[in-house]
Amino acid sequence: GKVSAVLFDMDGVLCNSEEPSRCAAVDVFAEMGVDVTVDDFIPFTGTGEANFLGGVARVKGVKDFSTESAKKRFFEIYLDKYAKPNSGIGFPGALELIMECKNAGLKVAVASSADRVKVDANLAAAGLPVSLFDAIVSADAFENLKPAPDIFLAASKNLGVDTNECIVIEDALAGVQAAKAAEIRCIAVTTSLDEDALQQASPVFIRKDIGDISINDILYGGSNAYHNERTENTKNISSLGNASPEILNGATNAESVENTNSSSSKDQGLLGSRRDILRYGSLGIAFSCLFFTIGNWKAMQFASPKGLLNFLTGGNSSIFATNEGESLSSRVQQIKKYLADFETGGSATYVPEFPRKLDWLNTAPLQFGRDLKGRVVVLDFWTYCCINCMHVLPDLEFIEKKYKDKPFTVVGVHSAKFDNEKDLEAIRSAVLRYNVTHPVVNDGDMYLWRELGVNSWPTFVVVAPNGKVLAQISGEGHRKDLDDVVGAALEFYDERKLLQNNSLPLALEKDRDSRLITSPLKFPGKLAIDVQNNRLFISDSNHNRIVVTNLDGEFICQVGSSEEGLLDGQFDTASFNRPQGLAYNFKKNILYVADTENHALREVDFVNETVRTLAGNGTKGSDYEGGGRGTNQVLNSPWDVCYAPLEETVYIAMAGQHQIWKHNTLDGVTEVFSGNGSEKNLNGSSPTNTSFAQPSGISLDPELRELFVADSESSSIRAVNLKSGGSRWLAGGDPNFPDNLFRFGDHDGTGWDVLLQHPLGVVYASDNQIYVADSYNHKIKKLDPVTKKVTTIAGTGRAGYKDGDALSAQVRDHSTN
């Protein structure tokens, strides 16, 4: 396919800097009195300085290790000793290839897991001017570094080039994995690892170093056909070196057109005049646009002109453009300087006032011109279905506690994606479930969203005490950014006597719900059944425990102390953190638990009455491949589990990074099974060309042919082939446009006619039917996997708590297992 941009990794690709980096790291540890070798750092190559140093510190058991201090010293040693300007660390052929790419009309970028201070130093040492590159993306602005795709996705966005028209050049396994996760083609070089090691991540091909990569390798997009032809006949390929990129791209495009019209003779050509072709082509485009508009109209309702502008320009994020290597005080001073320039600039945007008709939770209605005047405010645009919005709640809680005595307030602006999420009682339930204690406003009509040009969940808008919008930033991993800008703003505006620490009319929902306080269960998540022993297992999520009853609901015992935490041990001392999915192993009398907010897989042993952790360590991971053993393998919000007894494998719905994983109970290895990590509704023939959107419920068929998935954010039910790891569509969602996660509703029928709304649970039953918890429609539905017919069997479609006949009973936001 066409190539329009090249994303160069730096260390090991442009610069021969991997060995000097390891030497500088050895020097850092030597100053601590810790004996390490350069080889100790190889497993952490390409993952960013924090993990590069911190990973070895963990392996060596270094006590009281400070990542920030180590990074600071590392940069000092590296810049002083190993990376002096024009010191010749550039790989031969790097400059030449960059220039050839630019001459061919391609955009070029550096996309590195190193901090910006090191990127600049290395490029200077290699004699590669920064001005050569159309973009430089470094680790400073990201929480998730390689092998997460974030850096490459950001580089693609900065260049304004789709990922399918980019190609990456990488030397590290983590980098090749990151390119794969971003769905970008990758050429690997063996400057850091040998060919066998790199093949694990399946680059399109491998070269010795950047000097061995030709412009035609890039223009042909790393195609295997070209690679094979080059290998067999380098003379013929080199003769194309003088051909223009237009000719080369034209040849590639012509080949793809020929392949899609195989019934036409190559000699015969296309029938009809050019005008006919244009006429029919235009008509086809018109019908395609109409079809797209009809299928995506709900998603388009969230758009606004300002939101589009912010998306294209990146919004007002310059306040965060600082270097990771800086100390806290210097970064705060830089932000304060920005604020001084900002206040004298005269072009500020003022935050719109909250419409008076809006409903509020945790407080009486607030106004910027009254209650919030003189306070620094962070507006958190969220919707309670969104896993990313859940992930940032600990960040907001951290900042709220840090500045609790200051004139600072977080206001949650609930901007619903799903129709059900506009309901005030549903939002109140979410506020209670996630223990949100700051003011929350229900902006169901998305007024503030459109006025401020927000285009994704979560988005933070920082507002000054005078009502001016200081900054807007989207996504996870910005605790430090928010902390620094809030701290700097409080200092800056305090010095100008603009702060007012008036009390707010808070009235927390958790203090007003007596039913919740006395309820024996608190937001139970999932179920599992032991029919032979007449037992029902309940994940009592907000009590941080597992409740065991008989099938009549009579209490037998509980697992866990009810204290929030990650602690193995006996039933009465072990702890969980909002567990969700459960799966029972009858043969061993073991229950597997998706311990969601601990980002862990747990095992409950009813023989010895103990709990132990099988995978995950309490921190949110960003590993899209896996393969680690035990607690060394990090997880990301596992939401459901199911057990395959013949394989002795636990399958995991990894909602936090939109994948299906598996855990081998025999060797303790946990790894990805299906999904490339992109949040899409994409069905493919293999794990790497399949994408999910927050999978939240999974169930196996008895013959272990398929795994059925409640793909909540796409509002669809999918089936994963247990042999290939590919998937197929069954019902709901939009199977034609994978990026459209807004086709939802409540409609029974067959195939395309079916509409679901954020299903959270699915179970394959003994009658060969699939039962679906259509959660935001408050219904249980039955899906025939053969005919794809969906029928409501319980629930009225209105939230409530009412027993009775199936179609008159009422439930609310349920899941099943």
UniProtKB/TrEMBL annotation:
PROSITE patterns: NHL (PS51125), THIOREDOXIN_2 (PS51352)
One Pfam assignment: NHL
Annotated NHL repeat ranges: 756-786
UniProt keyword Repeat present: yes
Family annotation (InterPro entries): 6-blade_b-propeller_TolB-like, HAD-like_sf, HAD-SF_hydro_IA, HAD_2, HAD_sf, LDLR_classB_rpt, NHL2_NHL_rpt_dom, NHL_repeat
Transmembrane regions listed in the UniProt entry: none
Residue ranges occupied by any Thioredoxin domain in the UniProt entry: 333-491
Entry keyword set: Repeat
Protein name stated in the entry: Thioredoxin domain-containing protein
Organism: Aegilops tauschii subsp. strangulata (Goatgrass)
